[in-house]
Structures are given as C-alpha cells and as structure tokens.
Amino acid sequence: xxxxxxxxxxxxxxxxxxxxxxxxxxxxxxxxxxxxxxxxxxxxxxxxxxxxxxxxxxxxxxxxxxxxxxxxxxxxxxxxxxxxxxxxxxxxxxxxxxxxxxxxxxxxxxxxxxxxxxxxxxxxxxxxxxxxxxxxxxxxxxxxxxxxxxxxxxxxxxxxxxxxxxxxxxxxxxxxxxxxxxxxxxxxx
Length: 189
Hints:
Elements: H1 6-14, H2 17-27, E1 35-37, H3 39-49, E2 61-65, H4 73-86, E3 92-96, H5 97-104, H6 112-117, E4 127-130, E5 136-139, H7 145-148, E6 151-152, H8 156-159, H9 162-175, E7 185-186
Parallel strand pairs: 2-3, 6-7
Antiparallel strand pairs: 1-2, 1-4, 4-5
C-alpha cells in the first residue's frame, strides 16, 4: 500500500481489525489524554511499506495517558491488569506521562502529545486513539514524513540535547530495526 499522508495511515489502521480491537480495549479504561503510541503505529506503517504479509511482533503495546492525580506506578500496573482481562494475550504496558519526566530526569511534560514529541525518534513519535464516536485520531507532533519515507532520525528534542544523542544512538543499535525492515535509512546526528 502506498502511504502518502495521515489519512492513508488512519485508513491502514482502520482496516486492521486487530489494531482496532486493541484501541477499543484501551478506550474502555476511560483514561484522560490517552494514546497508543510508538511501535504499535510505526510497525504497521513499516510492515505495509515493506509489503509484509505477516505483522511484525511487538514487544509491547504502549498505552500512555496524562493524569497528574494518579502518579503512582501501582495505578499503571492495575490498568495493565484491567487490559489483560479484556485482551489477555497482548503485552500491555501502561505509563502515565504525568510522572515519566521523573523517570527520565527531564522537565515535566504538559500532555501526552508533548511526551510523544519528546520520544527519541521521529518515526516513533506517533500515537493513535479513538474519540467518543470511535473515530480514529492520529497524532504526529514531529510529522509523518520520516516514518512514511522510511527514515529514522532523532526528534528535535533529542537533537537539542547532546546527552540525548548517545541515548538515540544506543537505541538504534539495540533495536536493530534494519534487520527487520531492510529499506529503512538510519540517520545519525
């Protein structure tokens, strides 16, 4: 499938029943400012652009939300348990972005989209959710050009901080995405 814009990405996901079920499960938690992000979105795009007939297995499904009233890690684990009851075979990982700045040692995020904009790679800085009418919404604070052009680059946030460039480089090496998606281009700062 040719992917040229955000509408194409949304259509691609809407046609994937498995992904839509996962989005419905996450929506059922009724979390504030929630998104399913990162590899969940990126892998679908790259798999499609590589014409894979089978989906690439995800190590986890990242559900994020922003709630400064519930910043206890136990709360996140309880949410993961609720999701496992809905869809037990999914590797759920739930994180409250209202507390993740503490874990990451940076200034607080203002929202989940702000947190997504500060992910390491532009191709991973993506999120999906369903609105109240189950319309699919895509957020791409760094744009979708890099992910649809199969380019892996650091986000502006990671480019702005020299200490973060080493994290970016380490992730690129650890993730070894090129061994799965051979058409991608890794761009180092």
